[in-house]
Each structure stands twice: as structure tokens, then as C-alpha cells.
């Protein structure tokens, strides 16, 4: 192959990927799609530039224009989340978590966490950022029926082990966490409570989920590309004002944790796109969050009625964008592959009791992207039928995939973003 053939090959794969997702039902809970204005920022000249440091305090020249963009992104983030402090530099939610851990806890010190099998995110586990930092991790007790932290047990644990940090990081996030009670216990023993809102950030900003900063969390980290439909990246938020010496020290540590702690330059084009996404969410976020949750609840109910084992039944299955199914011992991988062959893109997931993350017993399902392309409760009935055909009736995958392709024809426009004329933008034809 010549170099030109190599380029054509990569370009062809990008086109195939666009077509693949345009014809499928993308239901991975951690994914979403960008608005045209956000995408425009990603191909701007910001892409190749460096801006180590903070606005006005750079290690490179030529950052004056970008400084204004970062300042605007910070301003919009604080307005969107009604908080006093925002750092928009982290290149991912996990990077934001690592920055916080570097800032606030030393190797060998103790943090309380949720166990991975009970829905924790890997960045707060021994194989992720917390493990890289060398933290002694002690798991909260868990209530399987309520799919949540056992609040009484967690409070007792915190009082007993006196951790440096009480972490709330979740990858399966069906219901709000008992933040108020855990924060009170953490503060009583001199610990900080850190809330990883990566999955639910857009629901929080849309006023449809708990606000951890109001409930007592010292910091909220998050991803800017899940229920908050922006570019891939991270953010750190706090209500600490920096007015006292203790507050100033706390926020200075966080800033130092981000840079030079875990990042050098930090993807300036993504910061610009974050600013756009924050502005769009201020305008459309509440409407989008409401519909995203409605869709998840409708889909969960419809799956349950068709014979699936859906977690959280007694609490209405979910109060977020996520649904968790139990498929059978170690059958999650097999089920996710069958769905993918049928045109439904989701992921295998551990459920309570699982020990092997590569052979789990569950599926995690999300509605952020389906909502973004205009689907509502009515469509969730059809989607539940596709799941039933694929996993319960074991119908031919090729036939289901063809039916899903036809079903998707009416849902190719992007919603909940700026300017009416952009809503018909075919975001799958970028290449």
C-alpha cells in the first residue's frame, strides 16, 4: 500500500463507523454525540496549540485568545452547576479523578469506595487511578435490593476507619447516593467527600438528579461527554470559595493536581467545545435531562414486562439514564455480542455477586444518545421488542438488524443544541 492508500483506508473506516452507528441503536450509557458547533471547535486551530498553566500565567506565548475561551468555559461551568469553583482542564473524567487523588491523598492513606462489582467506576478501584496512587481502599457495604450504598453501614465504616477521603464514584448509577449522611460522617472525621458525577453530570446540570455540592460533597469531578453531551474531557467543580486560608490551600492543591500533576497541555480545542456544550446545556439541558430519564424509565418498564430481570424494580428501576439487567451467570458478554450483531450497541457489566469483570452476568443500558436523536417513550416500546427478539426469542440477528436500520431512518437529526437550522445537520457525514 502507498501512503495515499493508507490514508484512504483510514478514511474509509471512519465513514464505515459513521454509517454503522447511523444504522444502529447506540445505547452505551457513557456515550453521546456532539452538536455541530462543538464539532467546529474540535477542528479549529486550537487543536494543535499549547497552553500550560492558567489564563494569564502561561509557559508559552500566543495564548491570549485561548485565555478568553478558558475563562468563558469556567464562567459557564460555574453558572451551569451553580458552584464557586470550576477547573475545565482535565482531558478525561478519569484524569480529573487522578488529579483530585494526587491533590488530596498520599500513597498508603485510606479511602472508602464502592466495590467494582456493585457499580463503582474503575478509576476508584485498585486497577485504576486509585491503585496508581497507591491508596488503601476499603469498600462500603452495599444494599443489593436498592442498588445503592448501605448508608448506615457506610457511616459506621467511615467513623471506624477514619479515611482521608470518602469517594463516591459510580459506573452503574441508577439512583442518587446518600451523600448528605456520608458527607456528615466524613467531615466528622476530617475527611473530604469526593463525588464522581461522570455519568450523571448532565442530569445534575439539568436539575433532574441530586446536587452533591449542595448535599455536602467537597468536590465533584465528571466527564463532559455522557449525559452532558459535550466533547470527551473532564471537569472539577466545588463550592469552596477560596476565601479562607484553608479554602485557598484546598483549591490550590486541586489546581496543582491538574497541572503539573497529571497534565501538560490539555487539549485546547476540547476546552473550547466544553464552553459550547455548557452554553447549550444552559439552554436545553433541563428538557434533555427530563426526556433522557423518562426514556430510561419507560424502557426499563417495557423490558421488565417482556420478561427481563431488571434491577431496582421496587424503586421504579432507575432515576437516571441507566438500566441494569441480569442476563444469567457469566452471560453478559454473550448477550452484548448477540445484541451488537442485531444492531444494538451496549455493554456487558458486572452485577452484585460477580467476581470476574471479563465474564459478568449483566448488561448496562443507557438512553442519552437515543434521546439526543429525538426518541421518546413510544420508541422505547419498540426497542424493548428488539431486545426481546434478540435475547429471549433468539431470532435471526440479520433480520433484526435490518429492521433496526429501517427503524432508525426517522431518527437521523440531532436535538437539544443551538440554532434551529443545525437540527437537521447530518452528523454522521463528517468524513
Describe the 3D structure.
The chain has two domains: 22-32 and 285-422, Aspartate Aminotransferase, domain 1 (Alpha-Beta Complex), CATH 3.90.1150.10; 39-274, Type I PLP-dependent aspartate aminotransferase-like (Major domain) (Aspartate Aminotransferase, domain 2, 3-Layer(aba) Sandwich), CATH 3.40.640.10. Helix content is 44%, strand content 13%. It is built from 15 helices and 17 strands. The chain has helices spanning 3-22, 36-42, 64-81, 93-104, 129-132, 151-161, 179-188, 201-205, 212-215, 245-262, 268-305, 332-341, 368-372, 377-392, 397-408; strands at 25-26, 53-54, 57-58, 85-87, 110-113, 136-139, 142-143, 148-149, 165-169, 192-196, 219-223, 234-238, 309-310, 322-326, 344-345, 347-349, 362-366. Strands 4-12-11-10-9-5-6 form a seven-stranded mixed β-sheet, with helices on both faces. The chain has a four-stranded antiparallel β-sheet with strand order 13-14-17-16. The protein has a two-stranded parallel ribbon with strand order 1-15. Helix 7 (179-188) links the parallel strand 9 and strand 10 (192-196). Helix 3 (64-81) runs parallel beside helix 11, helix 4 packs across helix 10 and helix 6 runs parallel beside helix 7. It is globular, with a radius of gyration of 22 Å. 51% of the residues are buried.
Amino acid at each position: 500500500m502507498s501512503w495515499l492508500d493508507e490514508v484512504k483506508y483510514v478514511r474509509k473506516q471512519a465513514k464505515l463507523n459513521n454509517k454503522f452507528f447511523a444504522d444502529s441503536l447506540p445505547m452505551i450509557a457513557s456515550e453521546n454525540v456532539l452538536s455541530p458547533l462543538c464539532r467546529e471547535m474540535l477542528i479549529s486551530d486550537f487543536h494543535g496549540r499549547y497552553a500550560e498553566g492558567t489564563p494569564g500565567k502561561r509557559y508559552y506565548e500566543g495564548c491570549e485568545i485561548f485565555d478568553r475561551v478558558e475563562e468563558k468555559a469556567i464562567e459557564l461551568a460555574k453558572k451551569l452547576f451553580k458552584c464557586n469553583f470550576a477547573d475545565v482542564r482535565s482531558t478525561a473524567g478519569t484524569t480529573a479523578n487522578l488529579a483530585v487523588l494526587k491533590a488530596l491523598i498520599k500513597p498508603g492513606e485510606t479511602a472508602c469506595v464502592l466495590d467494582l462489582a456493585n457499580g463503582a467506576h474503575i478509576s476508584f478501584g485498585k486497577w485504576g487511578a486509585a491503585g496508581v496512587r497507591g491508596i488503601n481502599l476499603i469498600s462500603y457495604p452495599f444494599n443489593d435490593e436498592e442498588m445503592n450504598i448501605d448508608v448506615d453501614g457506610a457511616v459506621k465504616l467511615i467513623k471506624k476507619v477514619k479515611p482521608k477521603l470518602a469517594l463516591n464514584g459510580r459506573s452503574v448509577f441508577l439512583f442518587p447516593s446518600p451523600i448528605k449522611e456520608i458527607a456528615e460522617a466524613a467531615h466528622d472525621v476530617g475527611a473530604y467527600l469526593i463525588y464522581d458525577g461522570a455519568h450523571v453530570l448532565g442530569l445534575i446540570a439539568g436539575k433532574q438528579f441530586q446536587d452533591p455540592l449542595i448535599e455536602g460533597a467537597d468536590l465533584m469531578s465528571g466527564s463532559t461527554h455522557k449525559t452532558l453531551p459535550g466533547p470527551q474531557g473532564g471537569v472539577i467543580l466545588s463550592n469552596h470559595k477560596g476565601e479562607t486560608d484553608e479554602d485557598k490551600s484546598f483549591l490550590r492543591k486541586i489546581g496543582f493536581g491538574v497541572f503539573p500533576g497529571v497534565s501538560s497541555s490539555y487539549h485546547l480545542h476540547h476546552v473550547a467545545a466544553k464552553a459550547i456544550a455548557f452554553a447549550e446545556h444552559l439552554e436545553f439541558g433541563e428538557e434533555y435531562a427530563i426526556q433522557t430519564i423518562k426514556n430510561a424509565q419507560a424502557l426499563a418498564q417495557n423490558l421488565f414486562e417482556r420478561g427481563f430481570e431488571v434491577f431496582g424494580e421496587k424503586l421504579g428501576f432507575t432515576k437516571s439514564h441507566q438500566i441494569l439487567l441480569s442476563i444469567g451467570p457469566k452471560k453478559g458478554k454473550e448477550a452484548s455480542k448477540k445484541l451488537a450483531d442485531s444492531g444494538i450497541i451496549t455493554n456487558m457489566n458486572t452485577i452484585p455477586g460477580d467476581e470476574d469483570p471479563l465474564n459478568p452476568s449483566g448488561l448496562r443500558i443507557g438512553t442519552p444518545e437515543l434521546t439526543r436523536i429525538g426518541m421518546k417513550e413510544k420508541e422505547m416500546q419498540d426497542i424493548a421488542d428488539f431486545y426481546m427478539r434478540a435475547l429471549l426469542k433468539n431470532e435471526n440477528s440479520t433480520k433484526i438488524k435490518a429492521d433496526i436500520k429501517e427503524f432508525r431512518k426517522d431518527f437521523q437529526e440531532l436535538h437539544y443544541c443551538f440554532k434551529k437550522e443545525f437540527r437537521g445537520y447530518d452528523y454522521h457525514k463528517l468524513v
